[in-house]
Amino acid sequence: MARKKSVSGRSRGVSAVNRLFIQAEKVNKKIKALEKAGLYGIYKTKQLQEFASRTEGIQIKRSVSGKHTVSVSKSVTIPQYRLINKKLQEFLDSKLSTPSGIRKARQNMRNKIAKTLEGATGREMSDADVDKFLDIAKYSERVRQASILEFIDPSEFMVMVEQARSDNLSVDGWVSLLNNYVQINNQYMRKEAEELYYKYVR
């Protein structure tokens, strides 16, 4: 007797579900290595967390000790199976799901940032300079609303910081420099300009 074809939406067979369990076990081994290296929650693990939070049939559970574990349901439907299977395999295949891959990607990113800043400032960038730029970028992202950095790109702002340091500008000189890009026309923006001065220039 011919075997009936699976109907979309019907639960998958045991072998298909077992494949998901095997994938999940492999993913959990990688997650364990990332947690041990202090690199869990970024890049691919962050994407996987977001995927699990909005997708039925898969969960990422956190133990009392803070360890994370991917868990898949035994009763996933065909569409769920395909979606989860694809996402788990993407995670397993990605270079950003391993500590060494993440470290290499970070170093490549830092090298690119340093090269870009060197071209903009005309001087060699140290690791501390790159760290400062990354901090500026994070600050800019946090305070996008009603902030001076809403109007100035982080790369351009880094060049201004270098210019202010080179010219040994005072707070007033720094505010005047910022005024070329954005109007410092209220007490709030003046205070932020001073905070940026003491945070990045001095």
Description of the molecule:
The chain has helices at residues 14-36, 43-54, 78-93, 99-121, 127-142, 154-166, 171-178, 187-201, and strands at residues 58-62, 68-72. With 202 residues, the chain is mainly alpha-helical. It has two domains: 14-97; 108-201. It has a two-stranded antiparallel sheet with strand order 1-2. Strand 1 and strand 2 (68-72) form a beta hairpin. The longest helix is centred in the N-terminal third of the chain and has 23 residues, at 14-36. The termini are far apart.
List keywords for this structure.
disordered N terminus; two-stranded antiparallel ribbon; 202 residues; mainly alpha
Brief digest:
It is built from eight helices and two strands; from the N terminus they run ααββαααααα. By secondary structure, the protein is mostly helical. A hairpin with a 5-residue loop joins strand 1 and strand 2 (68-72).
The figure for the number of domains is 2
Question: What does the main sheet amount to?
Answer: 2 strands, antiparallel
Q: Sum up the overall morphology in one term.
A: elongated
Helix content: 55-70%
DSSP strand count: 2
Strand order of the largest sheet: 1-2
Q: Calculate the mean pLDDT score and round it.
A: 85
Low-confidence segments, ≥5 residues, pLDDT <50?
1-12
Beta-strand percent range: under 5%
Helix vs. strand class:
mainly alpha
Rg on CA atoms, Å? 25 Å
Q: What is the terminal separation in angstroms?
A: 82 Å
Number of DSSP helical runs: 8
H-E string: HHEEHHHHHH
